[in-house]
Amino acid sequence: MRVLFVCLGNICRSPTAEGVLRHKLREAGLADHVEVASAGTGDWHVGKAPDKRSQAAARLRGYDLSAQRAQQVTRADFAAYDLILAMDNSNLRNLKALQPAKGKAELDLFLRRYESEIDEVPDPYYDGDQGFEQVLDLIERATDRLVIELKGRL
Ligand code: 4NP
């Protein structure tokens, strides 16, 4: 199984989701069975490490994002991944516009798929620290449910 998280810049939300899922897969003994990556619909931050604020907030909860580097999503990703999870509706619209007619990837809105009380992970880029905490809260909860789904699909 290959899972790709997508946000706008690939420096805040989707790298956080990548780090959280990797961690939870290791805890569940599934790290060798699922490949995880993240990408942005935009290209402004390609090659950069995750935002320092995302890294700091994640580190306090035990997730290390430091080795990640931003990349932009491509049409080829729809053939390479099984599941592509968008952080907000704008990301989902941009992905649908890029999606080839044929491609194995299932495309979905991350929080809606896992029945969160809100559908979108809010963009924290222009927010204070509280925004980064909320991103982690939402992502941790949905990722617990994603791990259950992945267990059932392996
Ligand atoms: P992300 O956050 O999509 O969660 O990585 C953002 C990062 C950068 C920008 C916007 C959102 N930006 O406009 O540069």
TrEMBL record:
SMART domains: LMWPc. Keywords: Hydrolase, Protein phosphatase. The active site is at C7 (nucleophile), R13 (nucleophile), D123 (proton donor). InterPro entries: LMW_PTPase, Ptyr_pPase, Ptyr_pPase_sf, Tyr_phospatase_low_mol_wt. Its EC number is 3.1.3.48. The keyword Cytoplasm does not apply. The keyword Hydrolase applies. CDD domains: LMWPTP. Residues 1-149 form the Phosphotyrosine protein phosphatase I domain. This is protein-tyrosine-phosphatase. One of its GO terms (molecular function) is protein tyrosine phosphatase activity. Belongs to the low molecular weight phosphotyrosine protein phosphatase family. It is an enzyme of class 3 (hydrolase).
